Amino acid sequence: MRYSKNYKLGSMFCDSYGNISLRNLASLMLDVSIDQANILEENIDMTKYRWIVYQWDIDLISPIRNGYDIKITTLPTHMNKFYAYRDFFVEKDGKILARAKATLMLVDLAKMRPIKIPEDLEKAYGKEEAIYLVEKATYEKNLDYIKDLEIRKADLDSNFHVNNAVYFDLIKEITGIDDGDIKNINLVYRNEIRNKEFVRGFAQKFEKEIDFSLKSVEDGSIYCLGKIKTYV
User: Fold this and answer.
1) pTM (2 decimals)?
2) Is 38 left (phi over 0), alpha (psi -120 to 50) or beta?
3) Domains identified in the chain and CATH numbers
4) Average pLDDT, the chain
């Protein structure tokens, strides 16, 4: 089942150069998926569960600019044990500007850990053919320390941890990349950032690729890691 929403992009969605920020692009895509989830889960008791994003893969084909009227479409493709997969595409006047795949996990709120997705939930979502096939990423392990980043109260969401879209801003801080220079980004969430004042940022550039990670200041545990492919 496909589901779409239309948006008018104002300057509040964009960076200094008029390109939509990755943070806001991810937030808009999740907004579409949440609206669809509310429809598909209408007859299922979800009070015990919460969806969390485990991985983003976003492919930016053409600029998405201030003033654009865009349509974002999402389609849940399939579920496999602990994982649910959802594709997105962003259009303007029928032209696809971006594609994305979100990998999600279902968390049991009582146990606060991922669980196998129940059959009734899997049946409610059904299956669709994927529109974005993602290559498996490989990651560099020995990255350069860049700097420590302060976590603000404004970065926290209703679950009192850093919102998954905020990670895109933190990554830009350690890579120095502008939104308009990003061709593709892979981001994997390993641990939530909760009750932290700072996180430690690492990155390394290889020609038109940048590997990155955010780690705990205290024990070096990984909050997220990933790879950016750039146009420059």
Assistant:
1) 0.95
2) alpha
3) 3-125 (3.10.129.10), 144-230 (3.10.129.10)
4) 96
